[in-house]
Amino acid sequence: MPLSxxxxxxxxxxxxxxxxxxxxxxxxxxxxxxxxxxxNKVGGIYTVIQTKAxxxxxxxxxxxxxxxxxxxxxxxxxxxxxEPPNPAIRKAMDALIHNGCQVHFGRWLIEGSPYxxxxxxxxxxxxxxxxxxxxxxxxxxxxxxHDREANDSLILGSxxxxxFKELTDHLGDKxxxxxxxxxxxxxxxxILSRSRKIPMATVFxxxxxxxxxxxxxxxxxxxxxxxxxxxxxxxxxxxxxxxxCLERAAVHCAHVFTxxxxxxxxxxxxxxxxxxxxxxxxxxNVKKFSAMHEFQNLHSTNKSQIQEFIRGHFYGHLDFNLDxxxxxxxxxxxxxxxxxxxxxxxxLSRLNYLLRVHRNDVTxxxxxxxxxxxxxxxxxxxxxxxxxxxxxxxxxxVKEKFGRKLYDALLKGQIPDLNNILDRDDFTIMxxxxxxxxxxxxxxxxxxxxxxxxTDPILSNIRRVGLFNSRNDRVKVVFHPEFLSSTSPLxxxxxxxxxxxxxxxxxxxxxxxxxxxxGECTVMGIPSVTTNLSGFGCFMEEHVSxxxxxxxxxxxxxxxxxxxxxxxLTQFMFSFCQQSRRQRIIxxxxxxxxxxxxxxxxxxxxxxxxxxxxxxxxxxxxKWAHLFPQTEGFRYPRPYSVPPSPSASIHSTPxxxxxxxxxDEPYDEDEEAERDRMNIKSPFVLNAVPEGAL
Length: 694
Known about the structure:
- The chain is α/β, with parallel strands linked by helices.
- It has helices spanning 44-60, 72-78, 87-97, 128-139, 148-171, 187-195, 210-217, 231-237, 241-253, 262-271, 286-289, 295-313, 341-357, 379-411, 424-436, 457-465, 495-501, 516-523, 535-543, 562-577, 581-593, 600-618, 669-679, and strands spanning 29-34, 64-69, 79-81, 103-108, 115-119, 176-182, 201-206, 256-259, 278-279, 325-331, 363-369, 374-377, 448-450, 475-480, 504-506, 528-531, 552-555.
- Strand 4 and strand 5 (115-119) form a beta hairpin.
């Protein structure tokens, strides 16, 4: 069945109507956002707060501050030191500094340049025993001495609570303070602030529950047993009971509790025993990825660079047509089951069988970009790229010589004798180059020497399913156990460029509270596979009627067995392989149109909603209690894409589709426009607040 056609940008006229909500008087408020990952990249929360900074600064200006731990190297390379614009903040910092605790202030050198307040944990470590006692007296949570991360979190939290106490004492009744805490590492600051009755509105966001991540990593049937787990017992057996207690206490202390997706909200309700008040989806700074009408050309350019790597890696076995080769990839932390690498490999084995049985001339090259323990590039991979480069240099040398002789002959008005235009030496050079490409071993499945080769989960499963890159395999595997970099001697590409050059991103995650990887594919116009157990997949299911038509394939891993999910993923990939080149171009256009749905300009409004709600609960008698937002939400904009459809007269890619265009069914743009307007669900409703919750 032919893929639904894309429509041109001129057909998409939907706009985002103004959000009918009174704005907060930000000049009378101070907003603080607390996270362990402010200027300190550890995981995905860094991406959240970094990309969201611009829209928050635009709204709050100099009344917005981020807070986190101080690390000297990060401060020197990412922060420009300056003086606080607010005298009360300067006085609060001085109060801590005069008591022997170091506090640093500056502007974080990212888009938006937000102010940051960073606390030196080492300078205050001498207070740890006393602060452990305070935590025990406050909420009966004890921290073991050997858990350095938990101890550091307590030091940071104690410093932040101390800072807020000094700040609110200096501010008095105005301006009021809103503090937003991310994840359990920031939890102690919230717990201590609330126990000391510091007058401020608090929001706590969990991006993934602690225990949920541990349970899923243990290959438990997590989602079917959510209501059956003995939470305290499970946390104790994993020696994280104290961390779990900090997380749960922070959740229940906060005026407003939020999570990043509907699936995480279900998890949090069971794990932490509080239903989230607001779901705050993670967005992206779409402008960063936006290539306007060039995104199709960028796909072609970057795919050519990946194909050069493939030529070198598969030298001697390059018996497949690169023009009919599709590039799939999976990327992220090396969590074999949580990220769905297990079901992906099994599905690839089945896809390989289907392509061989149907004698399909399409070849699929699959990249696994997951960092693992290695000691260096393996020799065979480096040799492949060297052979490719040598062959390229040889071809260019012969081409130059051929070109000069042809040029001279044409100047003389002669048609050259092609049998004599190349001499014996030229043929000798070319034969040597051909002999250099001979290979008696199979192309390696990994680019590096793995430290735990025999027990590595990906390599073990590659051996199990037998994907060894043999000539008969239509699915080839390349495991790159290192994050991509443009300085790599093997595959010199940054991650963003690599993604743009691929045809499909596959992320069949079992545990993925949000999932930035398929979101990044979407805003760059690359179709992707996700699941209904990821926040991104749930978001797309909720807001797009037919995600597959827009290049978002959602595997059902929640209500189907592993076998059924594996078959569904296999069918998705096989159907993708059967698409014509023109259909893939159209689908990329449609995928890119969804990028506005993931922009912080729109998703940031969920955070605005959470702040309104927190203020209404913390200060019910104050003047902004009446500003509580309406639950009638906003309409999503029409998906917008600058490149025209390939059906238009102007081609959107460097090379237009070939004869396959003649076989495609007629394309009715008006009909497609109406279909797309119906496909995006709108309006939707922001989370309603239960009666009596205020």
